[in-house]
Structure formats: structure tokens, C-alpha cells
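agent> Task received from the user: take the single chain below, predict its 3D structure, and emit C-alpha cells. No templates, no multimer pairing.
agent> Plan: (1) validate residues, (2) run structure prediction, (3) serialize to C-alpha cells, (4) report one or two observations.
agent> Step 1 OK, no nonstandard residues flagged.
tool_call: predict_structure(input=
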Amino acid sequence: MRLFKKENRKDEGEDYANLMKSSSMQPAPTPASSQSQNSPTPVLVLRPQRGLASLNLRDLWIFRELIYFMTLREIQVRYKQTLLGAAWAVLQPVLQMVVFSMLFGGIAKISSDGLPYPLFNFTALLPWGLFSRALSDAGRSLVANRNMITKVYFPRVVIPLSSVLSGLVDFFIAFLVLLGIMAYYHFQPGSNFHFVFSPALLALPFLLLLTLVTALGVSLWFSAMNVLYRDVGYVLPFITQIWFFITPIVYSSREVTGNLRLLYMLNPMTGVIEGFRWALLGSQFSAAGWLLVSSLVSLVILVTGWVYFRQMERTFADEI
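)
tool_result: status=success, residues=320
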């Protein structure tokens, strides 16, 4: 029995050796890469985007929820720990209207196109308040949110965009006050204002959009420059004040005549404010020409500001 077991073990060892020898003689399966050595290797070429694609407008849709929450945060922070809260959205333009009515309407006797001066002035303060607040807040927005920029990636344009959109809340609150002032002068005996529903009211959404486009375009320029040159933060109030007086807020655009009128039309807020007066108050205004020039200038400011912002965006985290 022991001899038989030894012979079986010997046969099993020989069979195992023959099996290993036969398997080692077989050619190994060639990988797919070696079979395709003669085929050209695909090459991926990365090129910078050009034209409108370089603006990455698609990112705004992808990060739409971030835009919403940052806009909501801007609104909450604005009135946090204030006694009057959102009432400041009403008090500020109303107090400005009272002061301007006393100075320019009462003392200086500036023409208001035959309309009650408080109504004439408050209608202009409505879009101007949206523009000036966006210019002030969005111009400093990148520096104020430096911690977010240096820690996490997201389209940086979201920051000034949310600052601009947050001003819509104050705009609509003040618009309700304007409706009350219009109703007061409409029913006041002897008033030279009577509200009439007209097709011009349909232009209000376009005028609001034009205000936002202008505010965003200017804000993109100043917010990007403020990262490199902090002097912009000190210059912004001065620019806003100068822009206020070259815009027909306390006076009518009819007061500007001659060659200055052509230069005056290049101010995009001129067409916006005169458009609001034309749509709401029925003032005499050549809407087509002014709005066309204002729209073209606003688009130029927005596109050039967006391009400049995108070019400087890559250096924000290092410079801020």
C-alpha cells in the first residue's frame, strides 16, 4: 500500500509539472493597447473659450440657488439690528423728496413739466435709488466677501449680481409709496395730474430691466477694480454724487439744450428716469430715441464690464 501511494504521488507530480510546462509555453494574451499600437493616439487639446462663451453665462443657471440665497442674505443683513427695519426703504426716498421739493421746487422754482414737483421728483428717485444702492453695495461686494473668495470656488459674478438684485425689495416697497402719492394727486381737487391707463405702462418691466442692466454693468467694473485698487471705495460716493446731478432727477431733461443734449443722452440713467415719468405720469417724452440710446449704452457697459470682470477674476484670490 505504501508503494502504491508513493507511485500515485509521483504520477500526480509529473502531471502537475507537465501542466505547468504546457501552460508556460502558451503565448500570453496580448492587451488591447499593444494590438492598437499602429492606430493614432487621441489627443485632447484645451483651448481658452472665446467670444460670448468666455463669459460662462451657463454658470449662472447652474449656481442659481446660490444667487437666491446670497440675495436673501444681503436683504437680511441690510436691516439686521435696525429699529425701523424695512421702513428705511420708505423713509429715505420720502425725506429726499421733501428736501428736494422745498429747495428745487419751492425756492429755485425749477420746472417739473407741469406736474406736481413731489410726484415729479419721487418718480425719478425710484429707479435712481435702485441704481445708487447697487453701485454702492456691489462696488464693495468682492472685498466684503473676501473669505468666501479665498476658500471655495463659485462664479465670482454671483457676489455683485446678488447685491444688485437685493435692491429690488426696496424698489417695490418704494413703488407702493409712489402709487399712494399718485392716488393723492389724482383725487386732489385742482391738481394738474390725472392718472390714465395707457399702453406706456407696459414699458415698466423693460425700464426696470434696463435699470438692473446698467447697475450690474457699472458694478462689475467698479467691483473688479476695487480688488486691485482700494481707492475705488473712496471714489464711489463722489462718482455717485456727480452722477446724481448729471441725471434729470431734480430737474427736467428739457432744461438741457444744444450740443450738451447729445452728450446728455449718453447717460443711460437719463433714458431710464425719463422713461419712468413717461410711463407713469404721462410726461411728454420722445421715448423711442432716448430709450434706444440708453439701451445701447447700457449693453455696452454690461458686456465690457463682464469681460473685464472675467479677465480679472483669476487674480481675485491672490490680490484680495
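agent> Step 4: summary for the user.
Residues 101 and 118 are 6 Å apart (CA to CA).
agent> Done.
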